[in-house]
Amino acid sequence: MYRLLLLPVFLILLWLFCIRPYKNRRATAEAFCKNAFAHRGLHGTVPENTLPAFAKARENSVGIELDVRLTKDKEVVVFHDETLLRAAGLDRKISDLTYAELKTIPLFGSEETIPLLSEAVREADGVPLLVEIKAYIDCAELCEKTCLILQGYKGPLAIESFSPIALRWFAKNRPEYLRGQLSSRFKDREAKAIPLWQRLLITNLLTNFLAKPDFLAYDIRNKHQISLQLCKKIYHVPVLYWTVQCGEKEGCIFENQIQRSL
Asked: Tell me: the pLDDT tens digits for 39-83?
């Protein structure tokens, strides 16, 4: 009888071990997660992830969430998508174009173009900054270059990524940075490009033991996911929800409610 219970007990304990976050900086992570972050800056009247969007966030005293990628010539730029299709109608990957080429391409029918991370950091000027690493496995170069640019930033700062490998890189090489594990149930079309086994691991936070996140950044549509709830109730991990459309803005990544009054 007792032997029959050994396997399920072992599996439960293994599950709890795998989802265990990093606990040594809980107070610092909790303070960071109390901020409100404008998703890709305060956009709508201006394009997302552009310098005017970051300026509007700073002027309204809210944090900035932004995404970073590498260009063909290894510049760190701020851009969400893998390609320019949605933003500029061009089915070209950011990684296949140089920064000089990208500067000639206007975004969303405006005069704005893709900024460098260094430009975005100057525009943020000390407001809370949440930087998403847009890489999954081959991410070391992006992580290293991002660190060099962020070095010395005067405001609250954290790194987030869907990639536990990227977060593991920071845990080993730049442990001073707060780390946030991004996750969801990956139901969106774009997320289907991620292999199923990776989606299952990240959805269920089973890579936390590897990534050692200080906080979780979880899709608010999936806030009842069991591993997330266990992390909150057992390990008391701080959580930022994304992307919040309405209601309370504090302690979340929100989708530009403030812009209605701009």
From this structure: 999 998 999 999 999 999 999 999 999 999 999 999 999 999 999
Residue 47 falls inside a structural domain: yes
Low pLDDT (below 50) residues in the chain: 257-262
Catalytic residue of the set 39, 43, 224, 236: 39
Q: Is residue 93 part of a domain?
A: yes
Q: Is 240 exposed, middle or buried (0-12, 13-18, 19+ CB in 10 A)?
A: buried
Q: Has residue 1 been placed in a domain?
A: no
How many beta carbons lie within 10 A of that of residue 12, not counting itself? 10
List the domain range (segments joined by +) for residue 196: 23-261
Q: Single out the residue of 46, 39, 96 nearest to residue 70, CA to CA.
A: 96
| CATH number of the domain where residue 153 is located | 3.20.20.190
Q: Is residue 56 part of a domain?
A: yes
Structurally, the chain folds into a number of domains equal to 1
pLDDT for 262: 26
Q: How far apart are CA 214 and CA 211, in angstroms?
A: 9
Residue 245 is predicted with a pLDDT of 81
80 is catalytic: yes
